[in-house]
Amino acid sequence: MIHEVEKTDEEWRKVLTRKQYHVLREKGTELAFANEYWNNKKKGNYRCAGCGNILFSSKDKYDSGTGWPSFSKPVSEERMEYEIDKTLGMERTEVHCSRCGGHLGHVFDDGPAPTGKRFCMNSTSLKFEEDE
């Protein structure tokens, strides 16, 4: 797939930390309850750490009890891409940034009303921008 932000692996390695590269480009994950935003209660927006695309609002963030930042919906479906992930012996829906293709996390159908969605994201794939 062609994205608005396209970089070589070498270019990504230059602009991302080792941890960000692992999550965003190699589809890694981080530990539950040991990541930057799982318990963040500040108001603002969550951007893609790879390209700056605004992905989620704090208005849609909730405590899912999983230890990762969880959202009931993205700011816009056009900012998301989805892919079936069959690793770990199960089928899940993987979420990517539509602007750069970076891996963000997974979405599940066990979230709160009205969407019923739980966008379970890696803090490492996000950059929080607090409202002024």
Q: What can you see in these coordinates?
A:
Helix content is about 10%, strand content about 30%. With about 130 residues, it is of the alpha+beta class. It has a single domain (about 10-130), classed as Peptide methionine sulfoxide reductase (Metal Binding Protein, Guanine Nucleotide Exchange Factor, Chain A, Beta Complex), CATH 2.170.150.20. The strands form two sheets. The chain has a six-stranded antiparallel sheet with strand order 3-4-8-7-6-5. Strands 2-1-9 form a three-stranded antiparallel sheet, with no helix packed on it. Strand 6 and strand 7 form a beta hairpin. The relative contact order is 0.25.
- H/E topology pattern: HHEEEEEEEEE
Helix content: 10-25%
Low-confidence stretches: none
Which sheet architecture does the biggest sheet show?
Answer: 6 strands, antiparallel
Give the number of domains. Answer: 1
Q: Specify the CATH class.
A: Mainly Beta
Q: Let me know the CATH homologous superfamily.
A: Peptide methionine sulfoxide reductase
Distance between the ends: 36 Å
Please outline the helices and strands.
Blueprint: H1 9-15, H2 18-26, E1 44-48, E2 54-57, E3 61-62, E4 70-71, E5 80-85, E6 92-97, E7 103-108, E8 118-121, E9 126-130
Antiparallel strand pairs: 1-2, 1-9, 3-4, 4-8, 5-6, 6-7, 7-8
Short description:
With 132 residues, this protein is of the alpha+beta class. It contains two helices and nine strands; from the N terminus they run H-H-E-E-E-E-E-E-E-E-E.
